[in-house]
Specification:
Elements lengths: L2 E5 L6 H12 L4 E4 L11 E4 L20 H10 L3 E5 L1 H8 L6 E3 L7 E9 L15 E8 L3 E3 L2 H9 L3 E6 L18 E5 L5 E4 L17 H12 L1
Parallel strand pairs: 1-2, 1-3, 3-4, 4-11
Antiparallel strand pairs: 5-8, 6-7, 6-9, 9-10, 10-11
The structure holds glutamine (GLN).
Pfam families: GATase_5
Pathway: Purine metabolism; IMP biosynthesis via de novo pathway; 5-amino-1-(5-phospho-D-ribosyl)imidazole from N(2)-formyl-N(1)-(5-phospho-D-ribosyl)glycinamide: step 1/2
InterPro entries: Class_I_gatase-like, PRibForGlyAmidine_synth_PurQ
Length: 231
């Protein structure tokens, strides 16, 4: 797999992502500074990592979405190339209009840093085919602005087309207001683009790849990507 991890001023999860990709695929990704204008030749997967790009001014991800490299990321996505945005990366993808909707402040108006169950909504994608349909995974969240919303038409389109990737749930996979950790519409934790080649998600699968440091439920995502790329 040829992967590229884009780093912005204020990114802080780029090494965790790089480690997860190397662990799954055996190949270290290229690290690409945001000021670059091109992705490395032959890039299959672009990852926008978590963090606090530009200190979360003006809105989380708003300035990073206008970085030089984003034109190349847009072109890569338009060609059908894979793009993964985690946490601040998801915020950047929405601000760049590669994904619909926006991430508002958590409804509790607090930064949430905790373990959270997610339900895998579909497994016929490049990102999730190593999981089981409806599988409940245990990952970390760490964000102040993860409250995804969109206008009613966009939400209906996403639901009708099955573009929800993950929902916040309890340990049995039950989705309810109590398990919705940040107030997102329909407990949405991650969404796909229409062609399902772009995934944005608030939780951090890259931090759950090692049993010695918390668990391995994030591995499925990186192993899905690695096997798809190798094929
Ligand atoms: N861990 C992160 O990527 C944080 C995302 C973002 N800066 C927020 O707090 O909402």
């Amino acid at each position: 797999m040829k992967a590229a991890v884009v780093t912005f001023p204020g990114s802080n999860r780029e090494r965790d992502i790089a480690r997860a990709l190397k662990h799954a695929s055996g190949v270290a990704p290229a690290m690409v500074w945001h000021a670059e204008t091109d992705l490395p030749a032959g890039t299959d997967l672009v990852v926008l990592p978590g963090g606090f790009s530009y200190g979360d001014y003006l809105r989380c991800g708003a300035i990073a979405a206008r970085s030089n490299i984003m034109a190349a990321v847009q072109a890569h996505a338009a060609r059908g190339g894979l793009v993964l945005g985690v946490c601040n990366g998801f915020q950047i993808l929405c601000e760049a209009q590669l994904l619909p909707g926006v991430l508002m402040r958590n409804d509790r108006l607090r930064f949430m840093c905790k373990r959270q169950n997610l339900r895998v909504e579909r497994t016929d994608t490049a990102f999730t085919h190593r999981y089981a349909q409806g599988q409940v995974i245990d990952v970390c969240i760490a964000h102040g602005e993860g409250n995804w919303t969109a206008d009613a038409d966009a939400v209906a389109r996403i639901e009708d087309k099955g573009l929800v990737a993950f929902r916040y749930c309890d340990a049995n996979g039950v989705v309810s207001p109590e398990t919705n950790c940040n107030g997102s519409v329909n407990s949405i934790a991650g969404i796909y683009s229409e062609k399902r080649n772009v995934l944005g998600m608030m939780p951090h699968p890259e931090n759950l790849i090692d049993a010695l440091v918390g668990g391995t439920d994030g591995r499925g995502l990186f192993e899905s990507l690695a096997s798809r790329m190798a094929a």
